[in-house]
Amino acid sequence: MIKASLCGVLLAVVAVYSAPAHAGPMGRLTDMPGDARRGQAILSDMSRASCLICHEIEGLDEKDQGQIGPPLRGIANVLSEAELRQRVVDARVMNPDTIMPPYFSLDNLFRVAEDHRGKTIYSAQDVEDVVAYLKTLKGK
Questions:
Q1: Across the chain, how many H-helices and E-strands are there?
Q2: Which of 31, 126, 131 is nearest to 86 (CA)?
Q3: Are 42 and 132 contacting, i.e. CB atoms less than 8 angstroms apart?
């Protein structure tokens, strides 16, 4: 039930923003390297905007995983670290029509609830940790 509610909120927010104009390689956001274990915990945290609301990640304990976005099995074989980071930060740069929310961008957001205005979903270190975890997904 919580997952369905979060998914609905994310889709509603995503439906009302437009893509930012900037693009380019997305370098690291922090000096501290990402921690893959922490990244797995962050993207699995259903109390936040979990990646598992929309994506399936084989091998995780969470049984109720999303079918909206593509499964993330083998994603590290397909996308570079910079591409993974860009998608987490703001996937609209690569695909203006995406419904994936920007996890570390405040660009071109509309109708944001007052208590969330001026705040990103993830911190810079959260992004680096999630990217470190995504880089481990090298399945076939």
A1: 5, 0
A2: 131
A3: no
Work out how many domains the chain is built from and give that number. 1
CATH number at 89 reads: 1.10.760.10
Number of neighbours of residue 110 by Cβ within 10 angstroms: 9
- Domain with 129 in it: 2-134
Q: How far is CA 17 from CA 11, 12, 54, 117, in A?
A: 11, 10, 19, 14
pTM above 0.90, yes or no: no
Domain assignment present for residue 139? The answer is no
Model confidence pLDDT, tens digit, residues 11-69: 444 433 333 434 445 788 888 999 999 999 999 888 877 888 899 988 888 888 889 98
